[in-house]
Fold this protein.
Amino acid sequence: MERIFRTGGLAIAVCIAWTGNATAGRAEDLSLYTLDAPPMTMIEAPVGEHAHGFVADIVVEAARRAGYQTEFRFLPWKRGQEEAAATENALITPLARTPEREAAYTWIAPIYPLERAFATLDRPVDSFADAKTRLNTILVGRGSAQEATLHGMGFDDGRLIHAEIGVSDVDMLRFGRVDAWFNSIIETEWKWRRSGQAAPLVFGRVLYTDLIYLACAKRCAPDLVRRLRVALKTVDDDGTARAIQRRYLGST
């Protein structure tokens, strides 16, 4: 595994190349754009070598079966989405299929359903109306589907706070720098638990659920899409996807 760290502005770009278990013939390289969103995708995973989150691992296995090897590109999410959309045959995950993104990508296949909710340290926030009344500051990922949802629900940018490089999103909630964190439940729980926090998180009601996709650039070879779509189905059908999820999530 090779890692190349390079800095640009406030962001740190990480490129991780992994050949997987490609067969004797030289497999074609595919760039896979992603972000550090554990336990779905992550730069460092606790479950073994070449493990980069359960969504990433599922994609890597499908790519291997389809005859490809993957090169991870961990970038700030907004920038990663822009580069992936503009790069021929580039893959991207974990990406929610939102109306704003629909025309920018070729949507290969769904991988996992993701529940979104507000997390606080006190009373639950059970609706967007409740959030507008009670919350002055909301932590949300820059360029994320959650951010787009809040904008669509009428939340202005003055209320939305983004964790910058070197600042932990867990610490922002823990130390009261934000009133709530709007994110996927699975990622929020994972980060909170892994940080060793003793205080319990309070989740409001699930406000919506969407499917996380593997997508490709708009200029994506039809044969590549077909092969990956078939391979992802085999990974699901033979139980491999579920086994990979269990490595990270237990029996859930």
Notes: The chain has two domains: 2-113+213-249, 114-209. Residues 37 and 187 are 7 Å apart (CA to CA).
